[in-house]
Design goal:
The complex is a heterodimer of chains A (277) and B (259). Chain A is an all-alpha fold. Chain A is 84% helix and 0% strand. In chain A, helix 3 packs antiparallel against helix 8. Chain A starts with a helix and ends with a helix. In chain B, helix 5 packs across helix 6, helix 6 runs antiparallel to helix 8 and helix 8 packs parallel to helix 9. The interface between A and B is large, with 58 and 57 residues.
Chain lengths: 277, 259
């Protein structure tokens, strides 16, 4: 009996060791993939296959990042100022969209009359891509924080409304009927059953909204701005500095990835009850 | 009797509320535009401007010509990215080694928004037709790969094992079991790629183009012709809706078991 357990134990350990080895192998492969990619990039530039004035080598880009941390040329701001300016615009539009969009979507999904009244307005605005709003908003409000925030708002608002609307519409009818049987009022069912069951969908909407905000921000800043990462890229293009452009792209990508990671963390916290079931 | 009046009130509200909402928007539009004509042209001047786009061409094309040049770019890029994006997604979703090597590079490039590629692509390739199609390709490639990969990876292991038990080869299992199971997810990628492609082509055209709906927006904006901007924006919205409707129909035809 005890030898059997021992054998089982050993077998399990052996299996786990094998799995760890396999995982290690794939992790190494990922690292190799990235290193080979960077090395090839460096070689292509250094061997002169691609002109360095068009595509700077990875080492040159690293140098530019170091340079931009403390120096303002060519766009007139150090890197941090640009990052903060972009974050301020993107997040202000994003949060306002969440604060207005999610309650609106929930409200529309729960009360039929609200749906009938608000839905046509929403459906008229929805197919307009946020980028197309830029000229109209700029003519109305200039190129300040408010104008760009409004453009971001439009892009983040739509997924917030759609997802919270769909989420609460998909609430299990059985749950609603059980609550009715136990004498809950409509309002009570709304916030004790409807909202929690709409949360996963709503979070998916927030994720889309965040991605939209960040990418529309770049467009807004490229078309009309005086600071920010999109502005930095645009200036980099005008003065023919591809290293500045690529640094801008990398920083935009990195911050986008960080924001989405943060959101996953918050989502995990909020939706813990779902996993526990 | 009481419930009957209730029903009547309900159906009156039910049908009048949407009408009320739309008329409210039109009234606000008319009132606002008559007070601030320089900020917002009224419905009638937009209509007049729309008629004028057919009689006086802008940039050598009528409104329909601009729609067509935008559509051409999107469709060309979509065909390329459907081919490559779906194959690449299947490759890194199915083969773990490929996923480790190429997936990691893809993960680095993925978070860069397609619009952020515009300046570097203009620097490399100028402002012709190829750079625009390349941009739309980048913008549509990413959602396709993400969705295809997720669809392939989420296929239930038990189906794959059944395939193995019945002696299916790797290629057979992929073709007969995995890809059909992942099809709804792949179609979600296709749907996203269409809307993201439509947005990207506008951005590309707004920054640099002679023809296309995006360039119409910029022309109206720079020439302080707000009516033209609105004509372009409304056309963009309508074309976008038609595109996503067409994709929905296509999805119903290709995988009717979905939904």
């Amino acid at each position: 009996m005890s030898t059997d357990t021992k054998k089982l134990d050993e077998g399990l350990k052996e299996y786990q060791r094998q799995q760890q080895l396999i995982n290690l192998k794939y992790r190494l492969l990922s690292a190799v993939g990235i290193i080979v990619f960077l090395l090839m990039w460096q070689m292509v530039v250094k061997l002169g296959i691609v002109n360095e004035a068009r595509l700077p080598a990875p080492t040159a880009i690293l140098n530019t990042i170091m340079f931009k941390i403390h120096n303002t040329p060519p766009d007139g701001n150090v890197l941090w100022v640009n990052i903060l300016s972009s974050l301020q615009v993107a997040l202000s539009g994003f949060f306002i969209a969440i604060i207005i969009g999610i309650p609106l979507g929930l409200f529309m999904g729960w009360w039929e009359y609200a749906d009938r009244f608000l839905r046509p307005i929403f459906e008229l605005m929805r197919p307009i891509p946020p980028i197309a709003w830029i000229p109209i908003v700029v003519v109305w409000m200039g190129i300040g924080l408010k104008a760009k925030g409004l453009i971001i708002f439009f892009t983040a608002f739509v997924p917030c409304v759609i997802n919270s609307y769909t989420g609460i519409k998909l609430t299990n009818k059985t749950l609603i009927n059980v609550s009715k049987t136990f004498g809950a009022s409509n309002l009570e069912i709304f916030y004790k059953v409807g909202i929690p069951s709409a949360l996963p969908m709503t979070f998916a909407g927030i994720r889309i909204a965040l991605g939209n905000s960040w990418s529309t921000l770049v467009a807004a800043e490229m078309l009309a701005s005086s600071a920010g990462l999109g502005y930095m890229i645009q200036i980099g293009r005008q003065v023919a500095r591809p290293d500045i452009v690529i640094v801008g792209m990398i920083v935009i990508g990195a911050i986008g990835a960080i924001l989405s990671g943060l959101l996953s963390f918050i989502e995990h916290r909020f939706l813990k009850w779902k996993v526990e079931h | 009797m009481h419930s009957n009046t209730k029903n009547i009130v309900h159906s009156i509200l039910y049908w009048s509320l949407p009408v009320l909402a739309v008329s409210l928007i039109i009234i606000i539009w008319i009132v606002f535009s008559s007070n601030h004509p320089e900020l917002m042209p009224g419905p009638f001047s937009v209509w007049e401007r729309l008629i004028k786009t057919f009689t006086i061409p802008i940039g050598g094309a009528s409104l329909l010509g601009h729609v067509w040049s935008s559509l051409q770019r999107v469709l060309a890029a979509l065909l390329i990215s459907w081919t490559f994006g779906i194959s690449f997604g299947i490759l890194i979703g199915w083969n773990r080694a490929a996923s480790a090597i190429f997936g990691s590079i893809f993960e680095i490039i993925r978070p860069i928004p397609p619009i952020a590629w515009i300046p570097i692509i203009i620097m490399w390739f100028g402002i012709g037709e190829f750079p625009k199609i390349l941009l739309v390709f980048i913008g549509t490639f990413v959602p396709l790969v993400i969705n295809t990969r997720a669809g392939i990876e989420m296929v239930d292991k038990i189906y794959i094992n059944v395939g193995k038990v019945f002696g299916g080869s790797n290629a057979q299992i992929l073709k007969e079991i995995v890809i059909p199971t992942a099809l709804p997810s792949i179609f979600a990628g296709i749907r996203t790629s269409v809307s993201s492609g439509w947005t990207t082509v506008l951005a590309a055209e707004m920054l640099a183009a002679r023809q296309g709906l995006g360039s119409l927006v910029t022309k109206g904006w720079q020439g302080s012709d707000m009516a033209l901007v609105l004509v372009a924006v409304i056309t963009i919205a309508i074309t976008g809706s038609v595109l996503s409707f067409a994709i929905m129909k296509l999805e119903k035809a290709v995988c009717p078991w979905n939904n």
